[in-house]
Sequence to fold (422 residues):
Amino acid sequence: MIDEKNKEGQYKPKFMEWGIISKDNFNDIYEVPIKRWDPLSTISITTDEFGLHKKLKRYYGHYSYLSPIRGKRPQGYKAIQEASKRSDLSKEHIDAFNDVFTTITEGKLIYDTNGNQIGDGYSMIITQDEEKRENPFSDTPHKAERIPTSCKALTLINRYPAMARVIEPDILNYIQERLPSHLKLATGINLLTISRDFYPSSNFELMPENILTGIFLSMKEAILYCILEAIERDYYDIPVNPFFNIGTKVGGSQPRIHSQTYIDLNGDGHGSRLELFLKAFKEMGENCHLCETSHGDSDRIIISTQFWTFYTTGSPVRNYHIRFHPNEHIRRFTHLKVNQIKDLAKNLRNIFLALDNIGIDTNRNILFNCCPYGYDADFHMFGDIIPHEVIGGAEMADDMRVARKLPHMAAAEIRGSLEEIL
Fold:
């Protein structure tokens, strides 16, 4: 691919790459990313119980991000081969994938076995390990230089985001004046965190503990950097959603283990799932369920450490649905301390291996549920590990699931597998 460059020799982003919309790449308002609320399941927020800013009207309910550039992101799995279950990351193993991030970490062009170029090496690095690099609102992608091997993880701006991040003022006015009233330009920051060295997502449990710890620490610092810069630009009430998509069946398009974080800067509310969490914790008051529950008289607990509790939820959204929470009552992922993050990395790896050993689908999501920035809510952060599973029509028609595996029996199976491992 021939790089498109401006007069200064920098890469000239195509429309919506890295969330950039400028006079040089803008063509049509119907190509811009849209955030649209479903009128049949959206309710105006009329109370001030969570301390929301009064400037804008807020909603909760179902919404969609409509972003055509998401369909242009590269698919990193070669054909239908996801991965071999080998623990040695040999060249032959890595060649089973078209990893677009290798050109960024190695600072040079790479090619597949047919001689086709994979990626172009341009990126926007927000944090290298915990060190701040480029400003989260930068509009200038750079050609990557080789990342030192001492680095564990990088957090980047996603090149193919769901939301616009930087928009030239004249273009923003043009878009807002012409968009139909029922449509809203989606604005926000999409982050993507990778390990410096390649580890295939199908071998999640084989990633070294210190590398997974590095991913979490880089994520944490990048989120904080983005929030501070967003506040400086008069954004407020900011939902932040960190997650992993591990495997093609659960949304993973790249074979390298990576996390993503959606930082919504629309300031227009939050989804119905978060609304229920917020109201549930408000109703609990000082009697936080996660602080006080025994998780079914302990028979659903998989493992409990000084810092974390992992358990099978009593109301699973999939069979073998695992929840986990820090034992300390904290609101957000970014409140986690180093010792908590290290323990999280250790236990996630072991639980993934335990799930593998009892034959649970290796396509899994990891979700972190956190209190949005700016919300005055007594929230206890928690996470979900959700294995892929085909669900039925009734389960999509309402917020319900039909599970075949009793949660305490699932916990017993996972505990037994963990005992063999440990």
Remarks:
- Residues 79-88 have pLDDT under 50 and may be disordered.
- The CA atoms of residues 129 and 218 lie 5 Å apart.
- The radius of gyration is 22 Å.
- The chain is about 25% helix and 25% strand.
